Amino acid sequence: MIVIGPSNTVLLVNASFSGVLGKSGSEMIGTSILTHAPASDIPVYDTLLDELIALEKTGSTRASLPHNQIFEHANRTRILCTGAVSIIRREGEQAALLYFIDRHQPAPTGLSSRAEQAEDTLRTMLDVVTDGVITTDSNGMILAFNRAASELLGYSQYEVIGKSVGTLMSKRDQRRHHKHMRATDEELSQCILGRKRNVFAIAQNGEAILVAIRVTRAVLGDRPVFISTISRAEAQAQVAPGEQALATPHQLAAEKPRANRLSARTILLVEDDALVRKSTRRVLASLGYNVLQANNGIEALAAMDAFDGVIDVVITDVVMPKMNGAELAAEVALRRPTQHVLFISGHTEDSIDQSGLLPKGVSFLQKPFKTRELVDILGDLLS
Questions:
Q1: Spans of the chain, pLDDT less than 50
Q2: Residues 30 and 49 in one domain
Q3: Which of 26, 47, 80, 306 could disulfide-link to 107, CB 3.0 to 4.6 Å?
Q4: Is 252 inside any structural domain?
């Protein structure tokens, strides 16, 4: 067990974790956790702490997140630790992160010291390339993520290195990727290697970005790696003959308003939690939607009456002061009988059903939700 405070400072280490890394508590307490991990797997505990605090504010019952981390032993070997992170608070102090480790084992690298040097050299060289470059191993784990890829997709390399490349893909492309991972060398050569395709990559802010990608295979040390070169595709219509454009209907529904701002769809977002409202508005705006905002049902009706244009979707929280989501939807139906309404709540759909707050069959999304889930359900409503 280890407790990590603000700025990644180690606050507490128990004897078991000290034994795992071959370091005493006094050697670790007060130091940065970053100094105890290899450069290729730098921890992102500040991000994890922010995620847990955000979950806590939404009223989520989820108290922890699973987490795997590679640490460096005192003898320079690498240890893969598996466990979960949660928030811990001491009176009068800021929130800290508790990482409870269930098991640990030597981290499989398959790299000689010469190969590790080659990998570091490769990363340095790729950072000066103007196109985004993502290097993965044969299992799809990201080994390198250059500066141009960070600028295009918004992730820092520390957020993605060691993670599955599938986290950057749409659901449809994830299925294709898993299929490719099981393909033979001949099948890969025929369907993907060296061929330029257009796909949707999912950026750090949840935006679906149309990118041109070309995948090649190389050998790093004694193992095969895949090198994907990506760049922003100008438009769907500019795909060259013979190239493949991959997109789900939901992604196209999200891309359409961004491609044509003059005909952008409008969404009325009704949410009494300022943090949730702000983050949801930012995601919707990044997808090209015009966003009207309201703190409660009374404000939402006033905003609707004052707006002359078409409101394509009303997204409303279920439980709010003054007027709840169901009451708002009933008033909206009187004004605009064909209005699409999407209900969101920190409570589960089953508990909402049991409470009788909402009628059966309405569109519902449980908070906290992923951007992809929001894009999918909006695609259903607007298709």
A1: 111-112, 235-263
A2: yes
A3: 80
A4: no
